[in-house]
Task: inverse folding
């Protein structure tokens, strides 16, 4: 088969045929258009037959390429076109290792056609192109951007399309895009192929071990494929598999350490099967369909497409597919050029002329976005770097933190002093008693407590607590601008109260994350100050980030304005830390260099000694905060009725069916008037009834705001070794009333196809988010779909880790991943837009994150779930669940109610 470009006459005929003989403008071909109307702002992609002929006549592109001498491709330069997907950076990570140099990532509406021609043909900057997955349809310009024109006109450049990119390759040549027999998201299929070069060395067919993950609702109609396109891969059957079904049964048994546990597992499965209660997978829900096309190639161009996701954590041989595409690229260029080998100059390659490249994570105003010189962006050719052009989201290329110029007048030189008390926590009644004694007076106003109240299985080890501290203490309160519902508005009002009680207000045009980044980068410290401390928080910012801060992380708007501040933080300069593993207590105090130490360490030590000497403190505190009768006995009122929530689920399912999202994390709120409640007493009651590893208490008295959080979920952590870790939860089921029922429910969750699909999609999303800021090849999944048990529920938890790139700041990492994918769905940006249009109120603090940013630039943040927010006499609780193609609306409503049960019950019992 020849892999050379067609003549202009052949191509013109092909284009006329595929466009059905019309002078076509690819307009909106479906009722739903990307919220924000990208294509209206940017201009829809106009591709006429006249334009095609003009660009291709004379084979300008082919001649330009052929003029270049033959070169040995020691590394391959890929242009990765991002269709606003949440898996693009999984592809980026794969290609960075395979190609030897990271791809350049551009959004599908970032470059003009002139830009593409310049970089591809005049600058010869790229060897191949990969078109990412994405939401929507290739028939909609807002979804596909410039990709159609690239596929039509770049006939002499190797191209690989994934999912939406695959569909675009079919659509642009005349194939029809139709609804799949059923939406398939986060589920696996066995694949058979024709042995073409893209699948070289990969097995084929049933039981071959070639199983792939699928995220799509639309497919190419096989019967509509034109002669220019060849089908190269198909599903082997109509069945879809869950991830665990692809594992061998013996492998599952090997996970059990003892023969007794293996026997118990087998007995439980047997009982479930005998009772008809266990169903490993739903498969096709009775849908009968023919095999689905999973791969295509062009007959005369080096263009390929795969419907499945080779970059998914659960796809077999996905890495091999990308390696094969690199080999196809190398062979293609070697075949076309004269047999003259000239090694590519590495520095010239890395210094590609891409002047529109944006700086990473610097949320520059859209009207005056800065442009960096290409040599500045690619100074070090041999060090993996990432260039991303993000015109309509916060920028995610790379930049050197050391080169950021902040005024030296704002630099702070901080010194840390600390003391340790061995085994003290167990001697004084534990964390609860320490907090109440040291910080519980005066209704615990302006206090914080990051509370690891559930430490089984080493889920969490340390608790951090404190109150209004020394001279460095301050409270930072941030509210988004009233115009935050307008496109691209992410600025807001910042109120700062210092330790002396004075306040100042300022408007932050760049937003809160930019402020935090500058604040942390302005602090200088010595690592020797905290040598010997086993934890990562030594003082700094502690508080919450509300869900609406998504507008600083790429979301276009907030439809609903929050009632509470969008973020509140204390700068904590004095704190108490409890090591639950050894029951040790630490006290820490920060002060500026050349300023005297405060007496806080001495005073706190005396209080702890006094606490140890008293044998009655714990009983006193337990009686102090016992539940009391209240006149506020009314029930919680939900923002959405059962019928309304079920209808919302139906709306989500329709969007999923139409390909607009893979998964939508729908939520709602319940509310109750509580009046003058003892908020700390409520929190102590909640932590007793529903202990959790990432629990928290926050009190902001001037805002009349208290947060009682019993979250089991970590959002993201960065430790002092620069290791990032996310632990998303997807999949929840109630505990059983007997050990036997409890084990059966745990097993049902473990082998629920729906819950596995939810979890897998979010794992791939978090791999993508970490992949934006981690060293290529470092992102990995040490545990996938483990079931963890808590006081009231079993949950399915996965762990994703990666090594942070040295030129990325701590705040950058958070901005790359916020809000947590387990609370949005995937693709994240489109899903958040859809959820804003469906949900009836602001999520506020719920779905955001609580935690710390340490002055030495580590952080640890949770996901705000299972939380009671008490604001101005009202208690609110948020809850929801992931809607996927397999969701049942009534079941989703029941899951949402289940998640409110523990915090709501705590309020009702206490209030």
Result:
């Amino acid at each position: 088969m020849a892999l050379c470009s067609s003549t202009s006459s052949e191509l013109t005929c092909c284009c006329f045929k595929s466009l059905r003989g019309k002078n076509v403008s690819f307009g909106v071909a479906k009722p739903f258009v990307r919220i924000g109307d990208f294509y209206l702002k940017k201009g829809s992609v106009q591709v006429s037959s006249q334009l095609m002929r003009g660009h291709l006549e004379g084979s300008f592109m082919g001649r330009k390429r052929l003029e270049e001498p033959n070169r040995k491709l020691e590394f391959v330069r890929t242009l990765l076109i991002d269709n606003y997907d949440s898996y693009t950076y999984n592809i980026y990570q794969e290609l960075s290792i395979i190609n030897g140099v990271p791809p350049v990532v551009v959004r599908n509406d970032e470059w003009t056609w002139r830009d593409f021609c310049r970089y591809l043909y005049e600058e010869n900057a790229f060897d191949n192109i990969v078109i990412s997955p994405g939401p929507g349809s290739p028939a909609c310009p807002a979804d596909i951007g410039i990709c159609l024109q690239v596929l039509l006109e770049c006939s002499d450049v190797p191209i690989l399309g994934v999912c939406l990119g695959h569909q675009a390759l079919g659509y642009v040549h005349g194939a029809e895009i139709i609804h799949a027999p059923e939406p398939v998201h986060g589920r696996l299929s066995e694949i058979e192929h024709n042995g073409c070069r893209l699948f070289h060395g990969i097995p084929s067919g049933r039981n071959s071990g070639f199983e792939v993950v699928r995220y799509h609702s639309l497919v190419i109609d096989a019967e509509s494929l034109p002669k220019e396109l060849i089908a190269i891969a198909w599903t082997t059957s109509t069945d879809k598999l869950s991830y665990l079904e692809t594992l061998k049964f013996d492998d599952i048994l090997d996970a059990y350490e003892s023969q007794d546990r293996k026997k118990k597992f087998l007995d439980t499965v047997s009982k479930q099967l005998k009772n008809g209660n266990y169903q490993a997978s739903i498969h096709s829900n009775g849908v009968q369909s023919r095999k689905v096309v999973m791969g295509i190639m062009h007959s005369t161009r080096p263009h390929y497409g795969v419907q499945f996701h080779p970059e998914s954590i659960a796809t077999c041989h996905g890495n091999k597919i990308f390696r094969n595409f690199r080999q196809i690229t190398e062979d293609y260029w070697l075949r076309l050029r004269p047999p003259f080998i000239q090694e590519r100059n590495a520095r010239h390659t890395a210094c590609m002329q891409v002047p529109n490249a944006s700086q990473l994570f610097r949320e520059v105003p859209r009207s005056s976005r800065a442009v960096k010189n290409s040599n500045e962006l690619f100074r070090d050719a041999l060090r993996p770097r990432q260039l991303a052009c993000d015109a309509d989201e916060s920028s995610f290329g790379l930049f050197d933190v050391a080169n950021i110029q902040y005024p030296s007048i704002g630099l702070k030189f901080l010194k840390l002093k600390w003391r340790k008390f061995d085994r003290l926590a167990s001697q004084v009644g534990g964390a609860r008693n320490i907090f109440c004694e040291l910080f519980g007076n005066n209704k615990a106003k302006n206090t914080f407590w990051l509370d690891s109240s559930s430490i089984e299985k080493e889920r969490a080890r340390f608790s951090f607590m404190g109150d209004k501290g020394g001279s460095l203490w301050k409270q930072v309160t941030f509210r988004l601008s009233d115009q935050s519902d307008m496109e691209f508005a992410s600025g807001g009002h910042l109120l700062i109260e210092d330790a002396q009680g004075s306040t100042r207000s300022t408007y932050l045009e760049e937003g809160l994350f930019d402020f935090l980044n500058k604040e942390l980068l302005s602090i200088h410290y010595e690592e020797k100050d905290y040598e010997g401390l086993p934890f990562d928080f030594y003082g700094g910012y502690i508080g919450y980030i509300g869900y609406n801060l998504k507008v600083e992380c790429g979301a276009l708007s907030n439809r609903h304005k929050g009632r509470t501040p969008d973020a509140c933080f204390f700068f904590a300069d004095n704190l108490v830390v409890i090591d639950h593993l050894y029951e040790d207590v630490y006290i820490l105090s920060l002060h500026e260099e050349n300023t005297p130490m405060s007496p806080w360490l001495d005073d706190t030590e005396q209080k702890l000694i006094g606490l140890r000497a008293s044998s009655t403190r714990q009983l006193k505190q337990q009686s102090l905060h016992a539940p009391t009768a209240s006149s506020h006995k009314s029930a919680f009122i939900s923002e959405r009725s059962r019928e309304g929530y079920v209808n919302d689920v139906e709306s989500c399912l329709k969007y999923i069916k139409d390909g607009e999202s893979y998964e939508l994390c729908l939520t709602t709120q319940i509310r109750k008037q509580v009046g003058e409640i003892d908020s700390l007493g409520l929190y102590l009651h909640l932590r007793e009834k529903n202990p959790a590893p990432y629990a928290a208490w926050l009190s902001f008295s001037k805002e009349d705001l208290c947060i009682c959080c019993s979250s089991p979920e970590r959002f993201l952590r960065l430790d002092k070794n620069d290791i990032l870790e996310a632990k998303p939860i997807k999949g929840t089921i109630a505990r059983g009333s007997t050990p036997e029922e409890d084990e059966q429910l745990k097993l049902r969750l473990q082998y629920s196809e729906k819950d596995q699909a939810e979890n897998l999609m979010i794992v791939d999303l978090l791999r993508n988010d970490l992949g934006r800021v981690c060293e290529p090849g470092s992102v990995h999944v040490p545990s996938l779909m483990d079931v963890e048990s808590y006081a009231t529920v079993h949950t399915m938890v996965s762990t994703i880790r990666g090594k942070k790139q040295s030129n990325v700041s701590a705040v950058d990492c958070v901005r790359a991943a916020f809000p947590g994918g387990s609370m949005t769905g995937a693709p994240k940006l489109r899903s958040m837009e859809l959820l804003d249009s469906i949900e009836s109120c602001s999520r506020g603090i719920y779905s955001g994150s609580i935690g710390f940013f340490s002055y030495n630039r580590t952080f640890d943040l949770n996901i705000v779930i299972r939380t009671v927010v008490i604001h101005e006499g009202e208690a609110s609780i948020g809850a929801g669940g992931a809607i996927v193609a397999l969701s049942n609306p009534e079941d989703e409503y029941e899951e949402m109610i289940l998640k409110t049960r523990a915090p709501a019950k705590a309020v009702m019992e206490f209030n």
Remarks:
- The CA atoms of residues 125 and 147 lie 18 Å apart.
- The mean pLDDT is 80.
- The first strand starts at residue 78 and ends at 82.
